[in-house]
Design a protein that fits this description.
The protein has 560 residues and is α/β, with parallel strands linked by helices. It contains 15 helices and 28 strands. It is elongated and about 120 Å long.
Length: 560
């Protein structure tokens, strides 16, 4: 006789650790492994090989791996598959991730270290075909084309563990790297067993035991790492040559928050290897170095990027004037030129030889706009030149970063157009010169709309003449915009006035309203900064410069 017995029991098991930050609204949220209560942290991480598409880069351009999205349990397998296709080429990784699965992040970090890869926090903007497009040619061998920038990029939560695996580790000034406590989810199951036994010499002897059914008996979470987990993470950081300060920062930050680590602290913790920007790994000029970096590839027959004509939704859209959806749909936006920055010198004969100079900023604000502005400011050696801007708006994150850069450099801003008198910088044959272009500022027809208003709020002096136009509408990233306006000491009434206007509409402000909201500091036009006579005023403005006469060099005595 072989009787059967059923029994049930409770079994506890610990879920994988998961960390994450909701990038869309900037609030921390953490996921249990149970599918029914996992928050949406955005798309799963994808890996794409990208070739730099910056002008004048070809035929020898840098290439990199773009890693975008949430780290999931299956992410290391995807990464391993990509590495096999590269045949051992050590391409740097440009990562933008809100976090995710800790176990997977540790695996990724060890794979990165094993393959001796560099890593930087950054966003890759694709030119033409992108991984999110359907029917877009990608034969698996030719890389996508794009540019990498650090403005607004993030590596939060579990991502820094992946990041720690890099040989060279870079976080630019405008990128974010943050940590917090891990969340561990414990699941409880009720198991029903079927046990078969027989009687041998009067005693029961179990023949077999199998589980008949499993039912969920609840779960709970802890928001503090256990000693075992702490020991495991500590050993990993030591293995990667990173100081334990990273772990201490994690433990000291509640799971409901995020601690953005400052660049100097990252360097002290050895989390970064330098304070360079990601241009160290992806800049268009790095392939001209000697020796040539390993991620450069000479492709003599490479063609410039061609923008795809098919319609597709990107996998992770950027917040271009993003706003909460309303019943009224926004009209389709026309294609606008991306904002350019040009050094200009006043061409009015009345000012010669001591004339004002300024930076012309015209076009749509993009995520790369702050980096382009910083590059120009660095090239002019710290001179405090005013910015004359005309823009329909654009990327909110780019506008925030550009505004902070303007405030950091204590620059004045005016809304106006620049009429170039020598040649338009975008025209064929108008080659870039060391000397500034000749031009005049004109208020009439100039505009500063939507996100542009956020950008000019960073100015030390902010001028909008009577003939220029400034208009507002509601913007996405509302919490960040409000905090930014408070930071810039703009009046508290501006933000609610902005958010009260439907995204599909515009509200043009009068000069009285601009002053009342604290958006402008005066009613003068751009001539107060760029007019022919400003260099004769006392004190003399910082943007005035005397140019020597054309024959000055010939008249100078020779030096031995």
């Amino acid at each position: 006789m072989v009787p059967e017995r059923r029994s049930d029991g409770i079994r506890w098991w610990r879920g994988l650790f998961r960390l994450g930050l909701l990038a869309a609204i900037g609030l921390a949220s953490f996921a249990a492994l149970a599918k029914d209560d996992a928050p949406d942290l955005g798309p799963t991480m994808t890996f794409s090989v990208v070739r730099g598409s910056a002008p004048d880069c070809e035929p020898n351009c840098p290439e990199w791996i773009a890693a975008n999205g949430t780290i999931e349990a299956g992410t290391p397998a995807l990464f391993k598959r990509l590495l096999k296709t590269l045949g051992g080429r050590p391409l740097p990784i440009i990562v933008n991730s809100p976090g995710g699965n800790v176990d997977a992040a540790l695996q990724l970090g060890r794979m990165i270290r094993k393959n001796k890869l560099d890593i930087a926090v950054g966003v890759t903007e694709f030119s033409g075909c992108s991984p999110g497009m359907k029917n877009c040619l990608d034969d698996g061998r030719a890389p996508y084309l794009g540019i990498a920038y650090d403005s607004g990029a993030m590596c939060n939560s579990a991502c820094p563990l992946m990041f720690a695996g890099g040989i060279r580790r870079v976080v630019g000034e405008w990128a974010f790297l943050g940590v917090h406590q891990i969340t561990t989810t414990y699941h409880r199951e009720r198991l029903l067993y079927r046990t078969t036994y027989k009687i041998v010499n009067g005693r029961k002897k179990v023949v077999s035991t199998r589980i008949v059914s499993r039912t969920n008996a609840g779960s709970y979470k802890t928001y503090e790492m256990s000693k075992a987990v702490e020991k495991r993470l500590s050993a990993y950081l030591k293995e990667m040559g990173v100081e334990q300060g990273v772990l201490e920062a994690m433990k000291a930050t509640p799971a409901s928050g995020i601690h953005q680590i400052e660049p100097d602290d990252m360097l002290e913790m050895k989390l970064v290897t330098s304070l360079d920007s990601l241009d160290l790994l992806t800049g268009k000029t790095i392939c001209r170095r000697n020796p040539v970096p390993a991620n450069c590839r000479d492709m003599p027959n490479a063609k410039p990027a061609v923008v795809a004509t098919i319609e597709a939704k990107p996998t992770s859209p950027r917040p271009v004037d993003a706003a909460p959806q309303t019943a009224e749909a926004a009209p389709p936006q026309k294609q606008e030129q991306e904002m350019r920055f040009v050094l200009v010198r006043g061409s009015n004969p009345l000012c010669d030889p001591d004339c004002p100079e300024w930076i012309s900023a015209e076009g749509t604000i993009a995520t790369g706009t702050p980096d382009r502005l910083r590059e120009l400011l660095d090239n002019i050696g710290g001179r405090r030149l005013p910015i004359v801007i005309s823009s329909p708006g654009g990327d909110v994150q780019g506008a925030l970063a550009a505004g902070r850069l303007i405030r950091e450099r204590r620059l004045d801003v005016a809304v106006a157009r620049t009429d170039f008198l020598d040649c338009d910088p975008d025209a064929a044959g108008c080659a870039a010169k060391d000397a500034p272009h000749a031009g005049l500022t004109v208020d009439a027809g100039a505009e500063c709309a939507s996100a542009c208003a956020v950008m000019i709020a960073g100015g030390a002096r902010r001028l909008v003449g009577a003939a220029a136009h400034l208009s507002l509408h509601s913007l996405g990233m509302a919490d960040k915009v409000k905090a930014y306006l408070d930071e810039m000491a703009v009046g508290p009434a501006l933000f609610p006035a902005m958010q009260s206007v439907l995204y599909a509409s515009h509200r043009e402000l009068s000069q009285d309203e601009m002053e009342k909201f604290g958006l402008t500091t005066g009613r003068q036009s751009a001539d107060a900064l760029t007019g022919a006579t400003v260099c004769k005023s006392s004190p003399r403005p910082d943007n005035c410069r005397v140019l020597p006469a054309a024959n000055a060099e010939a008249e100078t005595p020779a030096k031995l």
